[in-house]
Amino acid sequence: MELTGYDQICKHRQRKKAGKRDSGGRVCFVREEISKGVEEVSWKFEEGMYLKLCKDFFGWEEDLFVLSVYMRPVNSTCADLDVDVSCYDHLVEQMAVVSDRGNVIVAGDLNARTGERQKCLIGNESEIKESDVFLLPDIVRNDCLFTPENLLHNDCSVLRSNVDKNVNDYGVKLLQLCEASDLIILNGRASGDKGVGAHTYHNSRGASTIDYVLCCRGALEYVTNFAVETCCEFSDHCPVNFQLKRGGNVEQEGRWGEGER
Question: In angstroms, how far is CA 12 from the centroid of its own chain?
Protein backbone atom coordinates (compact mmCIF):
# COMPACT_ATOMS: atom_id res chain seq x y z
CA MET A 1 0.00 0.00 0.00
CA GLU A 2 1.46 3.35 -1.04
CA LEU A 3 0.34 6.98 -0.96
CA THR A 4 2.07 9.64 -3.02
CA GLY A 5 3.92 12.11 -0.82
CA TYR A 6 3.94 9.85 2.24
CA ASP A 7 6.44 7.47 3.79
CA GLN A 8 5.01 4.48 5.62
CA ILE A 9 5.85 2.64 8.82
CA CYS A 10 4.43 -0.90 8.98
CA LYS A 11 4.17 -3.45 11.74
CA HIS A 12 2.88 -6.94 10.91
CA ARG A 13 1.14 -9.34 13.24
CA GLN A 14 2.57 -12.80 13.77
CA ARG A 15 1.01 -15.19 11.27
CA LYS A 16 -1.00 -17.99 12.86
CA LYS A 17 0.49 -21.44 12.37
CA ALA A 18 -2.56 -22.69 10.49
CA GLY A 19 -3.16 -19.41 8.68
CA LYS A 20 -3.17 -19.33 4.90
CA ARG A 21 -2.64 -15.58 4.77
CA ASP A 22 -1.05 -12.82 6.83
CA SER A 23 -2.82 -11.74 10.02
CA GLY A 24 -2.83 -8.00 9.33
CA GLY A 25 -1.08 -5.36 11.41
CA ARG A 26 -0.70 -1.60 11.65
CA VAL A 27 0.47 1.05 9.20
CA CYS A 28 1.28 4.72 9.76
CA PHE A 29 1.63 7.16 6.85
CA VAL A 30 3.97 10.10 7.47
CA ARG A 31 4.21 13.10 5.18
CA GLU A 32 7.57 13.18 3.45
CA GLU A 33 8.27 16.75 4.57
CA ILE A 34 8.17 15.73 8.26
CA SER A 35 9.42 12.14 8.02
CA LYS A 36 12.89 13.14 9.27
CA GLY A 37 11.30 14.15 12.57
CA VAL A 38 9.42 10.87 13.10
CA GLU A 39 11.02 7.56 14.02
CA GLU A 40 9.68 4.20 15.10
CA VAL A 41 10.88 2.84 18.44
CA SER A 42 10.98 -0.92 18.98
CA TRP A 43 8.07 -2.37 20.96
CA LYS A 44 7.51 -6.12 21.27
CA PHE A 45 3.74 -5.71 21.73
CA GLU A 46 2.46 -6.63 18.26
CA GLU A 47 -0.78 -4.67 18.65
CA GLY A 48 1.06 -1.43 19.36
CA MET A 49 3.16 1.04 17.39
CA TYR A 50 5.56 3.33 19.23
CA LEU A 51 6.62 6.56 17.47
CA LYS A 52 8.97 9.30 18.59
CA LEU A 53 8.38 12.86 17.32
CA CYS A 54 11.68 14.67 17.80
CA LYS A 55 11.61 17.92 19.74
CA ASP A 56 14.40 19.54 17.71
CA PHE A 57 12.56 18.99 14.43
CA PHE A 58 9.16 20.19 15.64
CA GLY A 59 10.42 22.97 17.90
CA TRP A 60 9.12 21.55 21.20
CA GLU A 61 10.75 21.56 24.61
CA GLU A 62 10.46 17.77 24.93
CA ASP A 63 10.16 14.82 22.59
CA LEU A 64 6.61 13.59 22.02
CA PHE A 65 5.93 9.86 22.05
CA VAL A 66 2.80 8.57 20.32
CA LEU A 67 1.60 5.09 21.25
CA SER A 68 -0.89 3.80 18.68
CA VAL A 69 -2.58 0.72 20.10
CA TYR A 70 -5.30 -1.84 19.49
CA MET A 71 -6.73 -3.69 22.47
CA ARG A 72 -8.02 -7.10 21.40
CA PRO A 73 -11.48 -7.95 22.75
CA VAL A 74 -11.49 -10.57 25.48
CA ASN A 75 -13.14 -13.09 23.14
CA SER A 76 -10.77 -12.37 20.23
CA THR A 77 -9.38 -15.33 18.28
CA CYS A 78 -5.92 -13.81 18.84
CA ALA A 79 -6.28 -13.79 22.62
CA ASP A 80 -4.38 -17.05 23.03
CA LEU A 81 -1.18 -15.64 21.52
CA ASP A 82 -0.10 -14.13 24.85
CA VAL A 83 -2.22 -15.63 27.60
CA ASP A 84 0.03 -14.54 30.46
CA VAL A 85 -0.03 -10.80 29.79
CA SER A 86 -3.13 -8.76 28.93
CA CYS A 87 -3.13 -5.99 26.33
CA TYR A 88 -3.47 -3.37 29.03
CA ASP A 89 -0.50 -4.83 30.92
CA HIS A 90 1.62 -4.23 27.82
CA LEU A 91 0.48 -0.60 27.67
CA VAL A 92 1.03 -0.01 31.39
CA GLU A 93 4.56 -1.42 31.13
CA GLN A 94 5.37 0.77 28.14
CA MET A 95 3.98 3.88 29.84
CA ALA A 96 6.33 3.24 32.76
CA VAL A 97 9.24 3.30 30.30
CA VAL A 98 8.24 6.25 28.13
CA SER A 99 6.68 8.69 30.62
CA ASP A 100 10.08 9.88 31.89
CA ARG A 101 11.45 10.42 28.36
CA GLY A 102 9.04 13.14 27.22
CA ASN A 103 5.40 13.91 26.56
CA VAL A 104 2.97 11.13 25.66
CA ILE A 105 -0.15 10.69 23.53
CA VAL A 106 -1.99 7.35 23.39
CA ALA A 107 -4.45 6.76 20.56
CA GLY A 108 -6.36 3.86 19.09
CA ASP A 109 -9.13 1.29 19.39
CA LEU A 110 -9.00 0.49 23.10
CA ASN A 111 -12.28 -1.48 23.22
CA ALA A 112 -12.99 0.39 26.45
CA ARG A 113 -16.37 1.77 27.47
CA THR A 114 -15.90 4.39 30.17
CA GLY A 115 -19.35 5.99 30.45
CA GLU A 116 -19.07 9.41 32.07
CA ARG A 117 -16.86 8.35 34.94
CA GLN A 118 -14.53 11.24 35.71
CA LYS A 119 -10.92 10.59 36.57
CA CYS A 120 -8.60 13.54 36.21
CA LEU A 121 -5.74 14.91 38.25
CA ILE A 122 -6.24 18.32 39.77
CA GLY A 123 -3.91 20.47 41.82
CA ASN A 124 -1.42 23.32 41.83
CA GLU A 125 1.93 24.08 43.37
CA SER A 126 0.47 25.14 46.71
CA GLU A 127 -2.44 22.74 47.12
CA ILE A 128 -3.45 19.22 46.14
CA LYS A 129 -6.97 18.17 46.97
CA GLU A 130 -9.54 15.47 46.28
CA SER A 131 -13.09 16.39 45.27
CA ASP A 132 -16.22 14.54 44.20
CA VAL A 133 -15.23 14.92 40.56
CA PHE A 134 -11.46 14.47 40.59
CA LEU A 135 -9.73 11.42 42.05
CA LEU A 136 -6.10 11.66 43.11
CA PRO A 137 -3.64 8.74 43.36
CA ASP A 138 -1.40 8.36 46.40
CA ILE A 139 1.75 9.71 44.74
CA VAL A 140 1.85 12.24 41.89
CA ARG A 141 4.22 14.90 40.58
CA ASN A 142 2.86 18.43 40.83
CA ASP A 143 4.07 19.34 37.33
CA CYS A 144 1.93 16.53 35.85
CA LEU A 145 -1.35 17.56 37.46
CA PHE A 146 -4.20 18.85 35.33
CA THR A 147 -6.06 21.88 36.67
CA PRO A 148 -9.31 23.44 35.45
CA GLU A 149 -7.20 26.36 34.22
CA ASN A 150 -5.05 23.98 32.10
CA LEU A 151 -8.12 22.47 30.50
CA LEU A 152 -10.03 25.69 29.85
CA HIS A 153 -6.93 27.43 28.47
CA ASN A 154 -6.53 24.61 25.94
CA ASP A 155 -10.16 24.66 24.77
CA CYS A 156 -11.17 21.64 26.88
CA SER A 157 -14.11 21.28 29.24
CA VAL A 158 -13.43 20.32 32.84
CA LEU A 159 -16.03 17.55 32.83
CA ARG A 160 -15.99 14.83 30.16
CA SER A 161 -19.16 13.97 28.22
CA ASN A 162 -20.00 10.63 26.63
CA VAL A 163 -23.14 9.57 24.77
CA ASP A 164 -22.17 5.96 25.57
CA LYS A 165 -23.18 5.55 29.22
CA ASN A 166 -21.96 1.96 29.60
CA VAL A 167 -18.79 0.85 31.39
CA ASN A 168 -16.95 -2.45 30.79
CA ASP A 169 -13.87 -4.09 32.32
CA TYR A 170 -11.56 -2.50 29.74
CA GLY A 171 -13.12 0.86 30.57
CA VAL A 172 -12.21 0.44 34.22
CA LYS A 173 -8.65 -0.50 33.22
CA LEU A 174 -8.40 2.53 30.95
CA LEU A 175 -9.48 4.88 33.74
CA GLN A 176 -6.96 3.24 36.07
CA LEU A 177 -4.26 3.73 33.43
CA CYS A 178 -5.13 7.43 33.13
CA GLU A 179 -4.96 7.82 36.89
CA ALA A 180 -1.66 5.96 37.26
CA SER A 181 0.04 7.59 34.25
CA ASP A 182 -1.21 11.18 34.57
CA LEU A 183 -3.18 11.03 31.31
CA ILE A 184 -6.45 12.69 30.36
CA ILE A 185 -9.13 11.47 27.92
CA LEU A 186 -9.71 14.03 25.14
CA ASN A 187 -12.94 12.43 23.88
CA GLY A 188 -15.96 14.38 25.09
CA ARG A 189 -13.72 17.13 26.41
CA ALA A 190 -11.61 18.67 23.62
CA SER A 191 -12.58 21.16 20.87
CA GLY A 192 -14.84 19.51 18.26
CA ASP A 193 -16.08 16.76 20.61
CA LYS A 194 -16.41 18.98 23.68
CA GLY A 195 -19.71 18.41 25.46
CA VAL A 196 -20.58 15.54 23.10
CA GLY A 197 -18.48 12.40 23.51
CA ALA A 198 -19.64 10.99 20.19
CA HIS A 199 -19.86 7.29 19.36
CA THR A 200 -16.77 6.02 17.55
CA TYR A 201 -18.02 2.57 16.51
CA HIS A 202 -21.23 1.59 14.70
CA ASN A 203 -22.56 -1.81 13.63
CA SER A 204 -25.89 -3.57 13.17
CA ARG A 205 -26.23 -4.13 16.93
CA GLY A 206 -25.74 -0.50 17.93
CA ALA A 207 -23.03 2.04 18.66
CA SER A 208 -20.38 2.65 21.31
CA THR A 209 -17.42 4.85 22.21
CA ILE A 210 -14.30 2.67 22.20
CA ASP A 211 -11.68 4.67 20.23
CA TYR A 212 -9.80 7.26 22.26
CA VAL A 213 -7.03 9.81 22.36
CA LEU A 214 -5.28 10.28 25.72
CA CYS A 215 -2.56 12.80 26.47
CA CYS A 216 -0.38 14.02 29.30
CA ARG A 217 -0.42 17.60 30.57
CA GLY A 218 2.74 18.55 28.68
CA ALA A 219 1.24 17.48 25.33
CA LEU A 220 -2.14 19.14 25.86
CA GLU A 221 -0.95 22.56 24.68
CA TYR A 222 0.09 21.11 21.30
CA VAL A 223 -3.24 19.39 20.52
CA THR A 224 -5.81 21.31 18.47
CA ASN A 225 -8.92 20.61 16.38
CA PHE A 226 -9.83 17.32 18.05
CA ALA A 227 -12.88 15.76 16.37
CA VAL A 228 -14.71 12.47 15.89
CA GLU A 229 -15.66 12.20 12.22
CA THR A 230 -18.48 10.18 10.65
CA CYS A 231 -17.95 6.56 9.60
CA CYS A 232 -16.77 5.86 6.08
CA GLU A 233 -17.57 2.91 3.83
CA PHE A 234 -14.30 1.16 4.65
CA SER A 235 -14.71 0.73 8.41
CA ASP A 236 -17.22 0.48 11.27
CA HIS A 237 -14.97 2.86 13.22
CA CYS A 238 -15.09 6.64 12.95
CA PRO A 239 -11.79 8.45 12.32
CA VAL A 240 -10.68 10.32 15.43
CA ASN A 241 -8.72 13.37 14.25
CA PHE A 242 -6.50 15.92 15.92
CA GLN A 243 -3.71 18.30 14.95
CA LEU A 244 -0.38 19.00 16.61
CA LYS A 245 1.12 22.47 16.76
CA ARG A 246 4.81 22.92 16.10
CA GLY A 247 7.22 25.85 16.00
CA GLY A 248 6.13 28.66 13.70
CA ASN A 249 2.44 27.76 14.20
CA VAL A 250 2.72 25.06 11.54
CA GLU A 251 0.27 22.23 12.16
CA GLN A 252 0.51 18.59 11.15
CA GLU A 253 -2.66 16.54 11.23
CA GLY A 254 -2.92 13.19 12.98
CA ARG A 255 -5.66 10.73 12.02
CA TRP A 256 -6.36 7.78 14.30
CA GLY A 257 -8.92 5.04 13.80
CA GLU A 258 -7.93 4.32 10.20
CA GLY A 259 -4.54 2.66 10.71
CA GLU A 260 -5.50 -1.00 11.14
CA ARG A 261 -5.64 -3.43 8.30
Answer: 20
